[in-house]
Each structure stands twice: as C-alpha cells, then as structure tokens.
Amino acid sequence: MKIIVDCQGGDNSPAAEVEGALLALRENKELRVILVGDETAIRGILDARNIKSRRISVVHAPDVVTGNDRPTDAIRLKKDSSMIRAIRMLREDDSIDALVSNGATGVLVAAATLRIGRIEGVRRPALCPIIPDMYGGVIGVCDSGANIEVTAEMLQQFAIMGSRYLEAFRGIREPRVGLLNVGVEEEKGDDLRREAYKLLAKTPGINFVGNMEAREALSGDYDLVVCDGFSGNVLCKSIEGTALEVMKRLKRDIYSKKKYQMGALLMKKMFEEEKEFMNYLNYGGCVLLGTEKVIVKGHGSSDRVATKVSIAQACRVLRGGMNDKILESLKQCEQEAV
Q1: Which residues, including other chains, have CB under 8 Å from residue 314's CB and lie 6 or more apart?
Q2: What's the CA gap between 147 and 106, in Å, rounded?
Q3: Cβ atoms of 139 and 131 closer than 8 Å
Q4: Which of 72, 109, 150, 205 makes an SS bond possible with 154, Cβ 3.0 to 4.6 Å?
Q5: What backbone phi and psi angles, to 5 degrees, belong to 291?
Q6: Listed range (2-6, 120-124, 211-215, 332-336) with the worst mean pLDDT
Q7: d(Cα 191, Cα 248) in Å, to the nearest integer?
Q8: CA 120 centroid distance within chain
C-alpha cells in the first residue's frame, strides 16, 4: 500500500505531515509513504529523528499552494508545488494508491477532478467529513463544500457514494441516510429537495430514512446526511463552533466559583474525555468521494496525530474496496432506472 503525503500547505507543515507519516508507518507494516514537499525541511525532520527507512521516499516540490490561490491558476502555474506534483504522481503512477493533503481544499478538489478523473458515472466528486454523534457513533456529511449548486441526481449519487464509504471505512452495514431539509415531512423543502426525496426513496443499495432537520444531526438516528455543499459546510462548522463555545462556557463557569472548581476536580477525567470526544482532529479528514483514486483532505490545522488518522483512514478505505463498490452501486442504479 503506497500513499503520497502532501507535506506543505497546512498550518503545521511539514512537521505534522512527516511526523504523522512516521506514526502511521509504525502502526501499519504494509504501508509505504512518499513525502512530497521541501526536501531540505523534510530531510531535516527525518535526520533529527535518525530515521532511515526503505518505506519512506522524498520528492522535492518547493512551491506551496495557499488558500488564496485560484484553483485554475494553481493548477496551471504552480506545477512545482507539493500538491500539484503529488496529484500528477498519483495520476501517472499506478503503484500509488492514495493521497493525503492538509492543503487548500478548493485547489485539491479542482486538481483531483481535472487531473485524476472521476469514477465512471460520477457526476461530481463530493467531500464527506465524519462527525461524532452524542451516542458513540458518527455521521457522515456529503457534500460539505465541493459542490455549492447540485441537482437531485447528484444528491442521489452522494447518498450512494457516502453509503459505500461508511461501509468501507467504519464497517456500518446499511447506513441510515437522511436528506437535510427544513422539516421531516416528505413534502417539505424546495423543488430540489422534494425531487431528491422521491429519487432517494427508490434508489437501490441505500437505506433512505427520510428528511433530517439540522438539529437531529447528532441524535444517533442517522449515519449519513445528504446535502448540497453550501448547506453541508454550514452544518459542519455550526456543529464544530457550538462544541467549542460550549467547552469555553463550561470552563468559564467552572472558574467563576470555588465550589464549582472543587466539583470540577472530581470530574476532571470526564471533562478530558469529553474534550477528546469532541475534538474533530481525532476523526480523520474528508474523503473526496468519486475520484478514480482515493484522496483524503485533512483539516488545515491538523497535527501529527490528525495526519496519522487521515493516513490510516486512506488505508482502511483502500482495504474496504470503496471505489469498486461505488462503481458497482452506480451501475446498479442506472440499470434500475432504465
């Protein structure tokens, strides 16, 4: 299993990517990694840890893609950047299985779509992050930003791709799929949502359980929520922001009175566990569903542990044969529609 790690473009690059790759290699003896970025910086980190391994190779790509770069300009002009070089290697080398990057999302999605290509039948690739629910499970959000404007057919494909992803990555059998909407009744929402509801209700290979209101996202009643990229991005960041602010409020209230502080000492372990439970960095990155090769987009603020989780995520998806299952399900859907 060979995976490229883009070592530039994140908030903590290249240390987070290099050290995360070392952690992943330690846990997975079948893994090989290609570290793409500033070779001097990468070699410096490896040498400081006295790392010499045949399972690690380094490719020099000094330029950096940033969030301020327009995707088309970055693809055309920044050919020596770590991200564009990694995309090119992924396309040209059949022995490379996947790419992990903490860099700019827009450029990564555009470059992957244009240079790697889509699985046969896929209309648009979609990002699918994983969020913990309140009962020990998770919920995938597909799409979370790759496609601002969608059609009902695209939402149908997001449901298919997201279902196969959760099966491959989390081992969830028949993931429960909800359509993000303003109400749970079938007739709620705009024309797009009503049309998508009808399509999803008759789509083979998915377990569609109806509309889902945003407040029910963490209820444990859904495994996958299907939505356009704008709504999905707002949903994810609203949940993330709410969790952070709740933790800040608790901390402020605890320090406001002595008796609260005394009680907090008795509950210190519980608070630490809750903080880890709500830490999005522990749940891996967003898999870009629908591309011919596996691509995982890590959070820009990923540290070494988060990067390790993203690499392990790519490995599990590959072992689970996600792309083959997506292709099979899409063909089944097409046959049913004829």
Answers
A1: 3, 97, 98, 99, 100, 287, 294, 296
A2: 10
A3: yes
A4: 150
A5: -90, 155
A6: 332-336
A7: 40
A8: 21
**CA angle, residues 323, 324, 328, in degrees to nearest 5:** 115
CA distance 139 to 176: 9
Residue-wise pLDDT for 149-182, tens only, equals: 999 999 999 999 999 999 999 999 999 999 999 9
Q: Helices 15-27 and 39-48 sit at what angle, rounded to 10 degrees?
A: 50
- Distances in whole angstroms, Cα of residue 148 to Cα of each of 20, 50, 138, 154, 257: 32, 46, 24, 11, 46
CA distances from 209 to 159, 179, 216, 250 (A): 11, 8, 13, 35
Copy the structure tokens of residue 286: 């967003």
Specify which residues 294 forms β-bridges with: 98
Under a CB-based contact definition with an 8 Å cutoff, are residues 111 and 125 in contact?
Answer: no
Going by the DSSP 8-state scheme, the letter that residue 57 receives in this structure is E
CA R_g for the chain: 21
Q: In this structure, are strands 2-6 and 32-37 parallel, antiparallel, or unpaired?
A: parallel
CB 289 within 8 A of CB 142: yes
Length of the chain: 338
**Please, what is the Cα angle at 7 between 54 and 80, to 5 degrees?**
100
What average pLDDT does this structure show over 124-144? 93
**Within 13 A of 218's CA, how many CA atoms are on the CB side?**
16
How much is the pTM? Answer: 0.92
Segment among 92-101, 129-138, 157-166 with least mean pLDDT: 129-138
